[in-house]
Design a protein that fits this description.
five-stranded parallel sheet; 12 strands; 8 helices; binds calcium ion; 2 domains; 20% strand
Length: 238
């Protein structure tokens, strides 16, 4: 496990205990003694995780958490809050500040490290999902751009007039670039199980689609017919 951890804690002995053990566990640690400095360090350092003490000399942990969670830049940085008493924990839970986990002092370092791992893993999964959905939102291949959210296809920036089925066929083929998709598979994915049509339906729609995207539909440069099997979006290996 690695990552940048910011510790916001004013009590020096706890700060040192945390800093020592967390660095030993392989993380890159930075520390802050108060709330306002903590916010500045969070914004400038963009840590992967913040350990935030509730009782701080200037602005308390509640405010720090609220500030970080309402800033677009820092809101996805996970926060583990440290509290001295369980009454404080009740208050935190009641306020629903968006902290990702809470731990009550005195705590065991082993437990804290285990919780850190869980929070970091969860935040990485969220991040990956976000990246994937952003990547999949717009597919760009050669001069085609397929916007999966807006259902728009443009070629060299010019919007193409595709029907919904044509759009879905193109998107499916483009997402599987270089792979042969059978007529049955395409029929199933685009028209669904309830549709009792023939695989010829796929051929007809591919023909229409080619007329719209290919320069010469007798010599298609995008969608290739794989005789007796189905279709594939050509992978030009670039
Ligand atoms: Ca404190």
């Amino acid at each position: 496990m690695s990552g940048k951890i910011l510790i916001i804690e004013d009590e020096l002995n706890i700060q040192e205990l945390l800093s020592f053990n967390i660095s030993n566990a392989g993380y890159n640690v930075s520390v802050s003694n108060n709330g306002s400095d903590g916010i500045i360090k969070a914004l400038s350092g963009m840590p992967d995780l913040i350990i935030l003490d509730l009782m701080l000399p200037d602005i308390d942990g509640f405010e720090v958490c609220k500030t970080l969670k309402s800033d677009i830049k820092t809101k996805s940085i996970p926060i583990i809050m440290l509290t001295a008493k369980s009454e404080e924990l009740d208050k935190i839970l009641g306020l629903e500040l968006g902290a990702d986990d809470y731990i009550t002092k005195p705590f065991s370092i082993r437990e804290l490290l285990a919780r850190m791992k869980v929070v970091l893993r969860r935040s990485k999964v969220d991040e990956d999902e976000k990246n994937n959905s952003e990547e999949n939102a717009i597919i760009k291949i050669d001069d085609l751009e397929i916007d999966c959210e807006k259902f728009i296809v443009t070629q060299n920036g010019v919007p193409l007039d595709l029907t919904l089925k044509e759009f879905e066929l193109l998107k499916l083929l483009a997402l599987n670039k270089g792979k042969v998709l059978t007529r049955d598979y395409l029929l199933d994915k685009v028209w669904g199980y309830e549709y009792s049509g023939e695989t010829r339906t796929v051929d007809v729609h591919i023909r229409h689609l080619r007329r719209k995207i290919e320069k010469d539909d007798n010599y298609p440069q995008y969608i290739e017919t794989v005789r007796g099997v189905g279709y594939k979006f050509k992978d030009k290996g670039v």
